[in-house]
């Protein structure tokens, strides 16, 4: 088959390449924006995703995964007694400050049972998890190594006033909208979270005025002073989640209801429910989904303008050719298909290098910036669809122009 | 049988508020298989008449029958289909597709006329050989001389074996010797394939190729067409 579309497109190679570069950048913009949005939203729920729990029990005031209220540890013990619960384990989440080489970093500490089965901090070895049974030991995410100023396993740092030894590294845990993640045992976490939590308010009455001085204790380095082992949890110790494994054959929805009615003030989620709640919080309650979506739309518009401009110029320059086709008896559809074929070629030949570019950029940002540009097969297909719609859509202007070509033009010398 | 017939063709163009009558009642009958030349001064309406006869332009009044089919009542879409199936065109400025080789120009015409499949290339090549350009198949139009381009255009016009060939000043862009060769080729192929041919020309040196000559002057046909004697 002779393709007038392809030949005409390649006739002016430099111009074609410039156009393809334009489409490629448009494709990249769309892919990177949506990829960042996807990577970002997914990062907020990586820990939920890697857990083996069927049901997550949280405070009824929960807003998203990291924004919720603690409840007393005794609820975990109660949960274990509920019929249909095979396993119930506690997860506690708190915040703190990481001191290393005299530098300060905010952190989010996750306490879980290293001997349990339901929580797992991303990709991590079993030996690293078992090592958390030691007092004041912790795992950190690989991507945080530099922020935490940690050279390797065995390095020491300080969380608030307490020492911490890094006993291993986890992968694929860090949320892009959170402080740096630290994983440790429940008892260690409890100690870290409650460490240095004292402040005093001193007020004096004089001359009819009350003067108050609020004194906070600083996170002093305890230096070589004796550090006592963390206390084990009591029934009042705060925990954030109860992770529940349902007994085999148990209806998860029914079990959820049973747990909510047995443990007052709680709300239960399946894994997917908690993921959706958290992701849609970050996408909708914050402007990030809107901003990144806007970037993607700008990308599509830029692409449309480029393609429309190229096709329109190409048609304008080849009016006589289209007139000849019409005189020779080409139907409207024959002529549209020339333009549509051109736009499809532009779509395919702009998409492929565009995707390659994104993939390289994504690999680079993931390695160096810790920012994941998530390109799933589905999103790749989706962006291809957008590219095709973009190119074919902008062919409309060119088609408009060619419809008005008078075949009589062919007789003009 | 009459291949191209027209009765009382009138054509006016509006420019602003003034109406210019370009064709003032043309009657025409070209028998099947004939080569008809149409001559006349510049601006006399030759191209306008050809466009009407080819169904590209709709006349203000009058009827046209091609191969016995009344075409003035056809829709634009039906006219396009009629041209595709029955008419080959040759233009003064060749109008080859510059991005396609000589061979591809003919292949595209075959494709357009509904010929699909691998036989197209051979058929196109065969036509190229008939116009003496078998060795130029892969040249782009830009690399061909004017005479060669017009020969490719003739091969393209013959693609799909149309019954009618219409040419508007096919030799005007060629020097007279080349023009003469091109017309001779057209004449030979048309007679060979039994096409009816209508050629508009200014060129008095090619009149010996015609079976009959029609003169158009100021929108009307001169009283008598001259039957060219001594042909064959
Ligand atoms: N689309 C149009 N709009 C207005 N006037 C037109 C149009 N087409 C042709 N005319 C006019 O009609 C007249 C005949 O034009 P036409 O092109 O048919 O002449 P011609 O005999 O082919 O001339 P030439 O030998 O120079 O090619 C001219 O005066 C021209 O200006
Ligand atoms: Mg003319």
From TrEMBL, chain A:
Cell location: Cell membrane
All copies of domain MacB-like periplasmic core, residue ranges: 21-261
The organism's place on the tree of life at top rank: Bacteria
Database matches in InterPro entries: ABC-4/HrtB_transporter, ABC3_permease_C, DevC, MacB_PCD
Entry coiled-coil feature ranges: none
UniProt domain ABC3 transporter permease C-terminal: residue ranges: 296-407
Membrane topology: Multi-pass membrane protein
Keyword field: Cell membrane, Membrane, Transmembrane, Transmembrane helix, Transport
GO cellular component, one term: plasma membrane
Spans through the membrane: 16-37, 290-315, 335-359, 371-399
Pfam families attached to this UniProt entry: FtsX, MacB_PCD
PANTHER family: ABC TRANSPORTER, MEMBRANE PROTEIN, HEMIN TRANSPORT SYSTEM PERMEASE PROTEIN HRTB-RELATED
Name the record gives this protein: ABC transporter permease
Organism this protein belongs to: Leptothoe spongobia TAU-MAC 1115
From TrEMBL, chain B:
An example Gene Ontology molecular-function term: transmembrane transporter activity
Gene3D superfamilies hit by this protein: P-loop containing nucleotide triphosphate hydrolases
CDD domains: ABC_MJ0796_LolCDE_FtsE
InterPro entries recorded: AAA+_ATPase (IPR003593), ABC_transporter-like_ATP-bd (IPR003439), ABC_transporter-like_CS (IPR017871), ABC_transpr_LolD-like (IPR015854), MacB-like_ATP-bd (IPR017911), P-loop_NTPase (IPR027417)
PROSITE patterns xrefs: ABC_TRANSPORTER_1, ABC_TRANSPORTER_2
Annotated GO CC locations: membrane protein complex; plasma membrane
Positions of the ABC transporter domain: 4-232
Coiled coil (residue ranges): none
Alphabetic keyword roster: ATP-binding, Nucleotide-binding, Transport
A Pfam family matched in the record: ABC_tran
Origin superkingdom: Bacteria
Protein name (database record): ABC transporter ATP-binding protein
Organism: Leptothoe spongobia TAU-MAC 1115
């Amino acid at each position: 088959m002779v393709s007038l579309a392809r030949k005409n497109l390649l006739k002016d190679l430099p111009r074609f390449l410039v156009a393809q570069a334009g489409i490629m950048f448009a494709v990249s913009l769309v892919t990177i924006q949506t990829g960042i949005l996807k990577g970002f939203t997914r990062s907020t729920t990586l820990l939920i995703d890697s857990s083996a729990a069927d049901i997550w029990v949280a405070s009824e005031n929960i807003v998203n995964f990291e924004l919720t209220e603690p409840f007393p540890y005794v609820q975990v013990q109660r949960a274990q007694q509920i019929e249909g619960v095979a396993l119930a384990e506690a997860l506690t989440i708190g915040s703190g400050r990481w001191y290393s080489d005299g530098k300060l970093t905010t952190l989010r500490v996750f306490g879980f049972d290293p001997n349990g089965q339901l929580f797992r901090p991303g990709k991590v070895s079993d030996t690293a998890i078992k090592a958390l049974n030691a007092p004041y030991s912790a795992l950190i995410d690989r991507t945080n190594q530099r922020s935490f100023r940690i050279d390797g396993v065995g390095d020491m740092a300080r969380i608030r006033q307490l020492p911490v030894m890094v006993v291993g590294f986890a992968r694929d845990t860090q949320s892009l909208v959170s402080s740096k993640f630290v994983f440790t045992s429940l008892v260690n976490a409890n100690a870290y979270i409650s460490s240095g939590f004292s402040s005093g308010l001193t007020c004096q009455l004089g001359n009819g005025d009350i003067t108050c001085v609020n004194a906070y204790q600083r996170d002093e380095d305890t230096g070589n002073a004796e550090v006592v082992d963390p206390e084990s949890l009591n029934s009042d110790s705060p925990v954030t989640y109860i992770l529940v494994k349902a007994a085999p054959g148990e209806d998860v929805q029914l079990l959820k209801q049973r747990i909510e009615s047995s443990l007052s003030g709680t709300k239960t989620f399946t894994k997917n429910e908690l993921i959706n709640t958290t992701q849609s919080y970050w996408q909708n309650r914050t402007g990030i989904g809107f901003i990144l979506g806007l970037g993607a739309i700008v990308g599509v518009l830029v692409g449309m303008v480029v393609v429309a401009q190229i096709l329109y110029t190409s048609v304008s320059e080849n009016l006589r050719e289209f007139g000849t086709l019409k005189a020779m008896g080409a139907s409207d559809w024959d002529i549209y298909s020339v333009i549509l074929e051109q736009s499809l070629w532009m779509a395919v030949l702009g998409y492929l290098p565009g995707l390659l570019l994104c993939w390289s950029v994504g690999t680079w940002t993931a390695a160096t910036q810790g920012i994941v540009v998530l390109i799933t097969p589905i999103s790749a297909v989706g962006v291809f669809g957008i590219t095709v719609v973009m190119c074919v859509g902008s062919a409309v202007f060119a088609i408009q122009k060619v419809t008005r070509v008078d075949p009589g033009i062919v007789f003009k010398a | 049988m009459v291949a191209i017939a027209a009765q009382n063709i009138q054509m006016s163009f509006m420019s602003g508020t003034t109406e210019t009558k370009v064709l003032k009642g043309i009657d025409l009958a070209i028998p099947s298989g004939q080569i008809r030349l149409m001559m006349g001064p510049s601006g006399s309406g030759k191209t306008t008449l050809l466009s009407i006869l080819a169904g590209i332009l709709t006349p203000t009044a009058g009827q046209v029958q091609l191969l016995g089919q009344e075409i003035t009542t056809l829709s634009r879409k039906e006219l396009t289909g009629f041209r595709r199936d029955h008419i080959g065109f040759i233009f003064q400025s060749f109008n080859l597709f510059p991005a396609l080789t000589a061979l591809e120009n003919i292949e595209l015409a075959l494709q357009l006329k509904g010929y699909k499949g691998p036989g197209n290339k051979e058929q196109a090549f065969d036509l190229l050989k008939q116009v003496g350009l078998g060795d130029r198949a892969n040249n782009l139009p830009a690399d061909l001389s004017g005479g060669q381009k017009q020969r490719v255009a003739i091969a393209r016009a013959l693609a799909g074996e149309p019954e009618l060939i219409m040419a508007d000043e096919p030799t005007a862009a060629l020097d007279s010797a080349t023009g003469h060769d091109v017309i001779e080729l057209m004449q030979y192929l048309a007679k060979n394939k039994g096409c009816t041919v209508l050629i508009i020309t200014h060129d008095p040196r090619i009149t010996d190729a015609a079976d009959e000559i029609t003169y158009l002057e100021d929108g009307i046909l001169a009283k008598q067409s001259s039957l060219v004697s001594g042909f064959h």
